[in-house]
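dude i think i finally got it to work??
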Amino acid sequence: MLSNFFDNPVFFRTALEELPIGIYAVDREQRIRFWNRGAEHIIGHLAHEVVGRIYSEHAACDQHGRILCSRDCPVGTTLRDGKPRGLSAFYLHKLGHRVSVKIRSHPLIANCDTVEGAIVLFEEALEPQTESAPEAGTPSPYGCLDAVTDVPSHRLTRAVLAEWIAGMEECRHGFGILRVRVLGLDEFRSKHGPLSAIPFMQTAARTLRHSLHQENFLGRWGEDEFIAVLPSANPVATAAAAETIWNLVTNSEVRWWGDIFPVLAVVTHAVAQPGDKLEKLLNGLEPTHAAAAGRAVDAAHTHAQQAPARG
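look at this
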């Protein structure tokens, strides 16, 4: 009886369905033929929404925001040469935010040694920060959460910043700080109503949570802004984090009444040093009109002309 159980193909399909990682399979025509529950959980698309579609419709992007095309996508290269591939990338979640994943593709080879397709395994590369508020009676690590984005509120964010500033005097060690402003929401509100900006802030918050390590802090700052604190970041790491976050946020999207809108943003960054005052540091992170074209901008150069945002 046990032997018959393991000989049943249904057992193997069920096992693939229940594995706690994302798994999907594509055929030689690059159409998705299998999509498990782990894939549904990680990037939101249900199996019936993707099976039969070309996998490139769900292609990932790299940390620079470039969509992985067939020549550098692990699936496309595996289908061509029959060799396994692996890399880290960012899938677009059904809700519009980016999710950091580790991808591994393996060829599906027939008896005649021809590549009939590929199977792709992926899992979240970063443990995302908490997606929602804790249950009633369970204290939050930072206290009160913002009702719209489920990240620490402005008041708590200011308290955390003040604590980090004070702590620098004892440890004599600076920290990275990012200020993320979502652009164009005043105009969008004027056209579509005050609640229309909420999906943009929620999408940006989800992308930020999936882009930052657990040791980093993310909080709501202004109506259209977030603050992130990188405790162990030096100037180079802070600049790199700001560029990556700008790329990922601006490669997120929002669906509003059937239309798709990109999320536009500017990210200013700096490294706080012992002796810095909180208000001066925050004023230095205020994006100027020149920076508002949208980029990752060093706070020391926010008055310089910046490159325009990519389309």
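Residues 154-171 form the longest helix (18 residues).
im so relieved honestly
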